[in-house]
Structure formats: C-alpha cells, structure tokens
Write a structure and sequence with these properties.
469 residues, mainly alpha, Rossmann fold, Serine Threonine Protein Phosphatase 5, Tetratricopeptide repeat, DNA Cyclobutane Dipyrimidine Photolyase, subunit A, domain 3, 3 domains, globular
C-alpha cells in the first residue's frame, strides 16, 4: 500500500543533517516537498514598514532556489506556493491522498500558531502531522533540564549543559528522493510578493550550497577560525567573523554541522581559544532558543522577559533618525546604513544600536527590534528579540562613541559607509560635531548640512566626547 507524505519545509532549507527530511524519507513511499511563502510575512506594520523587508526576502528566495536545485539533483523537487500553510497544505493533502505531513517544530508564537492551524485543518482529513526539532544544537531530550527550567543567565545555562548534555551525531545527506508526481511551481519572484525586482541586495548569497562553501572556506581553506576570538568584534569586511548566522537562521546550515566541523578542525588544524569561542557563541544562540521556549510572548513585552517597569517614548521623528542612520553619531549611522543597504550588521553594531535607542533616546525598544526583524538577513526570532531584551532592559549603557574608538581605531569602517566623512580622520570621525568651522572647511564637510548634528547628548555620552576632544 502506498504511503505518500508531504514535507513542509520551513526554516530548515537544507538536505544535510535535516531530521524532518530524514524521518519523512524513512516513513514515506513518495514525498511532496512544499514551501509556503506566507503573505502575512509581508504585511505593513503600524510604524509604516513591512514585517519582512527586501533583503531578507531576496536571501530567502535565493535559498529556495538553491534547495530546489539540490533536490532536483537527487531526483526531487520543491513546490513553492504563495499562501497560508493552513490553506495550501490541506488542499494538497486531499488532492494526493497524503497520509502524513512532516514539518519542523518551532518555538515562538506566530510559528506555533501556524503549526496549530495546519494540525486543525488536517484533523478532519485523517492525516497525521509529525514534527521534529531541526534548528537546535541540543535536542530537548538530550539536556539535563526541562525548557521551562532554563537558567536565567548564560553562565548557569552553560553549567547545566555540561551536566550530561550531548550533541547528536549528524544525520546522513540523502542521495535519492522518492518524488511524488506533480507539476511543481517555480520559485516566485520579488515582484510576485510586491517588491521591485532589484529591491533586495543581501550582503551574502542565500542557500545551502553557499552555506557549506562558507563553512569550508572559513574553517579549512583560510583557517580564519584560528583567530576568530580576536577579530569577531570588528565590522568591516567579511572575514572578521564566520558569517554563518544567515544560514543558521534560514536552516541552510545545521548548528550540529558547525559543531562537528569545529571538532574536526581542532583535531586536524588547531585547537585554541578561538575554536572554543566559536562554540561559545553557538551556545549563546542556543541559550536564546531555550529562553524563548521558557518565556514565550514575554520576549515581545515592552518590559522584557522580566517585565520591568518602563516609560518608553513614542517619538516617531527621533526613531526615523535612528532608523535611517541620521543620529549624528558616526559609529551608529555607519552600521545602520550597512544594514539598510545589505541586510547585515555586525554584532558590535547591534549592541550599540539597541543600547542607544533604548537608553539614550529612551524610545520603545520593540520598535528597534521590529526594524531589525524587517532588515536582517539573519533574523532569528529568539536571538533578535532576546538580544534586544538584554541591551534595552538589563544591560548597562554601551557608549557608541567610546566603542568607535575601541573597535574602529582608524575610522575605516565609519568612512567606508559614510562617504561624507571620507576625509575626516580620527578623532573627529568618532564625533564630527566637535569640529569648529575651520576644521569642517579643512575636511570638506558641514555639520548640520552634509552630515547631521546629534540631538543634545546625555551625560552617558558626554564623558566619551570629552575623551575624544
């Protein structure tokens, strides 16, 4: 008796180490692979921008194109539909007598709502709905604590991981695919969901192929991993950090693949503080995933997961200055222009932006987190919103002027993204509003005309200004 299955790809856009794919292949005679491009992802938010922006969409479409090609390479294909999964999937189930739908299990509210809606729609059809974890480093069955008991601090979380937790071995990459006969739709275009064809220009190419190439390059071809600990806080260029995050976020790269390749690197190339630190950062990602399981929607509350008292400002004009890279603080504006033009921003930029918006401007940090959700090609719900929680409601103030001096000592990053400051050397490129008229004339920039003057600064920033001057 035939056992047709439907494989619902979500944020697991890969063939390697894919638990959902592995189970579906083991239990089905034929499979119909599907991806639903949900129109709700592109709805306009109250602040006047779409929930998902052009760079992230372009990266996703590139990843889908690559997945479709890789599936075809083993006899498969991918059916990509613009529509809500609770409407698309039941229709396909009815049309093809599908017995089981296989999908990734997710953590956060919107994704879980999708899962529940699909399960509810499948129930009258007598179709099973099976889910697997596919984006975690540590499977919840393999840690020594329940997700609801996740530690409040990363230090304690790591301690708990050391108490018997394990990373599972990699699952094999399939070499054949039992495709269900069907007319498979092509990958939609940017225009199909209301964007201009050239709107998205992601900093890095999407897809599993690019992910595995980047992994090979960063680890073994260049051996850049050996110095990761000392370069990871930079912002200029592509080689100061791994750039795995976009691929992890879309599931083009398995975190377990990164973990085990790191172990291989330690055996075959070098084991040092950098190889330790890369896994340390991967565990930070894992910490946010488990915090997401524990706290649920509290991560989106203005008071954060600890529901702290708050009185955030709703100043839209000031928010626009931050959003468009017009704060008058070059280290911030350069990072924001990079984000808006490429969909990527370094971790150092993210920390400074979150701290500045919430603690200097006093603006509702959820606005900033929403803007990062729109723009980031490596957007991950838990990592994004819980990082903002930390910077806005828990962390001490991060001084963007001082950080510029520390992490962009020659001003190269600032001048790369702010061409109006191209001729302005340190220390003025950290705080160009300190230049008098003669100095502005010397370097060919008028503050307030060519480059914005900042809002009056708080005492938190003034000490750094004095050090610069």
């Amino acid at each position: 008796m035939s056992k047709p299955g439907l494989l619902w790809f979500r944020k697991d856009l890969r063939l390697h180490d894919n638990p959902v794919l592995h189970r579906a292949l083991a239990e089905s005679d034929t499979l119909l692979p599907v991806f639903c491009l949900d129109p709700r992802w592109f709805r306009e938010l109250p602040l006047g921008f779409r929930k998902t922006g052009a760079h992230r969409l372009a990266f996703l479409l590139q990843s889908l194109t690559d997945l479709k090609k890789r599936l075809k390479g083993i006899g498969g294909d991918l059916h990509i539909v613009i529509g809500q999964p609770e409407e698309v999937i039941p229709k396909l189930v009815r049309a093809h007598g599908v017995q089981t739908v296989y999908a990734q299990r997710d953590i956060t509210w919107e994704e879980q709502q999708d899962e529940q809606a699909v399960q509810h729609a499948l129930a009258p059809l007598g179709c099973n709905f099976e889910r697997e974890w596919s984006h975690l480093l540590y499977h919840p069955d393999d840690v020594s604590f329940a997700p609801e008991d996740t530690a409040a601090t990363f230090k304690t979380f790591r301690k708990h991981l050391r108490q018997g937790s394990k990373v599972r071995p990699l699952l094999p990459t399939p070499v054949t695919f039992p495709l269900l006969e069907y007319t498979y739709a092509p990958v939609p275009s940017m225009e199909d969901v209301g964007f201009k064809a050239t709107a998205g220009q992601p900093a890095y190419p999407g897809g599993e192929t690019a992910a595995l190439e980047r992994l090979q390059y960063y680890f073994f071809d260049s051996q850049l991993l050996t110095r990761y600990k000392w370069t990871r806080n930079q912002s200029l260029g592509s080689d100061y950090s791994s750039k795995f995050s976009p691929y992890l976020a879309h599931g083009c790269l398995s975190p377990r693949r990164v973990y085990w390749e790191n172990k291989k690197y330690e055996r075959e190339v070098k084991k040092n503080v950098s190889t330790y630190w890369l896994i340390f950062e991967l565990k930070w990602r894992e910490f946010f995933q488990y915090l997401g399981m524990k706290h649920g929607n509290r991560m989106f509350f203005p008071g954060g997961i600890k529901e702290r008292a708050h009185s955030w400002k709703k100043d839209e004009e000031l928010f626009r200055r931050w959003q468009e890279g017009r704060t008058g603080i070059p280290f911030l504006d350069a990072h924001m222009r990079q984000l808006n033009q490429t969909g990527f921003m370094s971790n150092r930029g993210r920390v400074n932006h979150a701290s500045f918006l919430a603690q200097e401007y006093g603006i509702d940090w959820t606005w900033g987190a929403a803007w990062f959700e729109v723009q980031l090609i490596d957007y991950d719900v838990c990592s994004n919103w819980l990082n903002w929680n930390v910077q806005a409601t828990e962390q001490r103030f991060t001084n963007a002027i001082w950080q510029s001096r520390k992490y962009d000592k020659k001003g190269e990053f600032v001048r790369h993204w702010l061409p109006e400051l191209e001729k302005v050397p340190p220390p003025y490129c950290y705080a160009p509003f300190l230049m008098d008229e003669a100095t502005q004339n010397k370097y060919g920039v008028r503050i307030g005309t060519d480059y914005p003057a900042p809002e009056p600064l708080s005492g938190k920033l003034e000490w750094a200004v004095k050090r610069v001057s």
